[in-house]
Amino acid sequence: MNQYPHPIIAREGWPFLAGILALALLTSYFIGGFAAFLVWLAALFVLQFFRDPGREIPKDEGVILSPADGRVIKVERAQDPYGQRDAILISVFMNVFNVHSNRSPVDGRIEKIQYYPGKFFNADLDKASLENERNAIVLTTPDRQTVTFVQVAGLIARRILCYVKAGDELTRGQRYGFIRFGSRVDVYLPLTAHVKVSIGDKVAATTTILAALA
């Protein structure tokens, strides 16, 4: 099980949850009725959005795990603009009902991190990968293969959080960041990787295997 010091509810959501719960209590006390119902409904949404359950890490060797919960919207050959190479691109789209904690898909050392301010197009559009606000991590695995994974902001997402830096060692399933309120993660793999998912598949961070390295 991936160790995380604040299970169930992500620490990124604590201020939001505290604020909406306080508002719900005040609304119930001073106003009540349908207004209170709506605020409690909003509190329930915030609670489910920031949930962050622990995940079992597959024991398979040489596999690429999904870095996010969501739906696969792209599997294709593409140019990795961060690792400067031809690659296989797998994109995972997260809607507002998915868990938004991001986890490392592989073991390895972070070679560089590149942050780009940008726009906020709908994250399931093709142009979002290169035009939206994004944060790219280029990592080298123990067997010297390059894997790049990119947090991409979406139409509603306005904050990309990344807690690692160049030179850090990541283990697969390790929590490294969070994107608030709808977004996507792009994963660039070596051309020799064997893809295990298809467009439309629902995936879960850490537990779903996206591909196997050759």
What key attributes describe this structure?
alpha+beta, 2 domains, eight-stranded antiparallel beta sheet, Glucose Permease (Domain IIA)
Mean pLDDT across residues? 90
Task: Sketch the major β-sheet.
Answer: 8 strands, antiparallel
Whole-number total of structural domains: 2
Computed structural class: alpha+beta
> Can you tell me the overall shape?
elongated
Could you please say which CATH topology of the largest domain applies here? Answer: Glucose Permease (Domain IIA)
Order of helices and strands: EHHEEEEEEHEEEEEEEEE
- At CATH level 2, the architecture of the largest domain is Distorted Sandwich
> What distance lies between the first and last C-alpha atoms, to the nearest angstrom?
26 Å
Helix content: 10-25%
Residue stretches low in confidence (pLDDT < 50, at least 5 long) are none
State Rg: 18 Å
What is the count of β-strands? Answer: 16
Report the portion of residues in β strands: 35-45%
Strand order, largest beta sheet: 11-7-8-9-13-5-4-15
CATH level-4 homologous superfamily of the largest domain: Glucose Permease (Domain IIA)
